[in-house]
Structures are given as C-alpha cells and as structure tokens.
Design goal:
With about 290 residues, the chain is mainly alpha-helical. The chain is about 60% helix and about 0% strand. α6 packs antiparallel against α12. The longest helix is centred in the N-terminal third of the chain and has 34 residues. The chain is globular, with a radius of gyration of 20 Å. Its main location: membrane. It is found in: Endomembrane system.
C-alpha cells in the first residue's frame, strides 16, 4: 500500500471525476434551474480551470520543497508511527486540525492571504470553483511539520492531504441544500462552505474546516448559513486574467509597503490581516467610523 501511495497523486487521478461531476452539475442546472443560484459563467469557469492547471504545474516545484521539509523533520523525529488503521484515523483527524489552523492563518495573515485569496476570487460558486487554486502555496508547508515531528511518515501525510482535498471538491456547489442535522453538526458540508466563500459581513472569516466542522464549533469560528450568500471578495478584482488573479494581492502588498511611513507599518501590511492599515488602527483608537 505504501508503494502505491508513494507513486500516485490521488488528486491528479481524480481529474476525470472532476470533469464528470462538473458536467453533471451543468446538466442539472440546465434541466433543473434555480433562479437563486449563480451557476456557471464561461469566463469565470475558464479562469478557475486555468488556475487549477497552473497550480498543478507550479506545485511541482513547491511540492519538492514541502516533501524535503517534511521528510527532513520526520528523519529527526524521536519516534516512528506505523501505517495501522488506527494511525490512519488519528492522522486523518489530526491533519484536519492542522488544516483548520493553516486555513485560519491564511485569512488572518496578509502574506498568506495573498496566496489563498485566489480561491475566493470567483463571484460564482460551483464545482469549478474548487479547482481555482493558488500558484504560490509554499508558505503552508510549516503546518505539516508537526505531523512529521510526531512520527507520521511523509507518504501518510501526503496521502491524507490528498484525501482531505478530494473531500472538499464536492462541497463547492449550490445544488445541495442543508443535509441531515447530525451530518451538518460534524462534517463540513456545502451549506457550511458556502458561508466560508461569502463576502457578507456576517460570513467573513468563518467555517475554516476541511472535512470536519467541529473545530470551527470548538474555536468559535462557526457560522450557519442564513441570508443568501454573496460570493467573491469584499473588494472584487474585476478580472479574469489568470496571472492577475494569481498575483494581484502580492502587488497590493508591495504598493502598501512602498508607501508606508515606517517599518512598523511595513511589517503590519505584510503580517497583519487583510484590510489592516495604520489608518484603521487610528480609527479604532479614536472611535472614528468614517475611515474606509
């Protein structure tokens, strides 16, 4: 089993299934339309698919960095964990906790958001949106290292990461409403993830989970779906150009850093949350409400 997992990227194998289920979703929208759903738009879908293909290509390089880091940390781990069923289950849950931590950091640290924002840049929500992935994800490697240090080998970690990502494909749809209450309580579902992709004020920075929603409930970042979701960013970028989609937030960070008055502000623009600026800090301190 180890040799099979070592040699196969599960997400690459799943590409035909991605295409099949997108086609089925399109057919369902054609024959069973719902005026409240965004559906597909040709330019938006093309951009999402291009970002997905670009992510595969770029991650050939980022992946080597990640593999080397995880293998290196595992080599110095004080113990080893074998591939028993119990180990796989523990790793599956533990990985989702670290995914939750990574995902939360991606929304709270601007330099990480500059990579993750790609996934939130579509104003549509369908299965193609799941494939709109970053080309610059190397910064997330650090969140895998505790698992390697705990003794889990690289092949188990990367197989689990693939399974987690595969699960998240199907929740990018408006075609499925709320599910059976026990499922909604424990698992990440289309309803929960629609909230995560919302730009509504009450939906911002909510529902970070990958497979499970229990960590959001535990750490108070859970929000149930209520009002209709407005997909996209609070300030949408207005482009379908894949290169601009990939790097627009890095360019914005560079502009803010160049225009900053001091080093404290420069570090703030890089390491604080999206939308942070010295002006917003001053507004909070003085109680002002008219600062954009």
């Amino acid at each position: 089993m180890r040799r099979v997992i070592d040699g196969i990227d599960l997400t690459t194998l799943a590409v035909p299934f991605y295409v099949l289920f997108m086609a089925l979703e399109l057919l369902s929208l054609r024959f069973f339309p719902d005026p409240g759903e965004q559906g597909y738009a040709a330019k938006d879908t093309t951009t999402s698919l291009t970002m997905g293909i670009g992510s595969i290509v770029c991650n050939l390089g980022w992946g080597l960095v990640t593999v080397a880091a995880v293998a290196g940390v595992h080599a110095v781990a004080p113990w080893r964990i074998g591939g028993s069923l119990t180990s796989w289950i523990v790793l599956f849950v533990a990985y989702d906790f670290f995914y939750y931590s990574e995902h939360r950091a991606n929304h709270r640290v601007r330099i990480l958001w500059a990579s993750h924002v790609v996934h939130h840049s579509s104003r549509h929500y369908n299965l193609s949106t799941a494939l709109r992935q970053t080309w610059t994800g190397v910064g997330n490697t650090v969140f895998l290292l505790p698992l390697a240090l705990a003794g889990f080998p690289a092949y188990m970690i990367f197989a689990t990461a693939s399974m987690n990502l595969l699960y998240q494909f199907w929740i990018h749809t408006e075609r499925i409403g709320k599910m059976w209450r026990p499922v909604e309580f424990v698992m990440n579902t289309p309803s929960h993830h629609r909230v995560h992709h919302g730009s509504n004020q009450g939906y911002l920075d909510k529902n970070y989970g990958g497979v499970f929603i229990v960590f959001d409930r535990l750490f108070r970042s859970f929000e149930p779906e209520g009002e209709p979701v407005r997909y996209g960013l609070t300030k949408n970028i207005g482009t379908f150009n894949p290169l601009r989609v990939a790097v627009h937030e890095y360019a914005a960070i560079a502009r803010d850093v160049r225009g900053a008055a001091d080093w404290r502000a420069r570090f703030g623009y890089v390491l604080r949350g999206p939308g942070w600026s010295p002006a917003t800090v001053a507004a909070v301190a003085t109680g002002a409400t008219n600062v954009a």
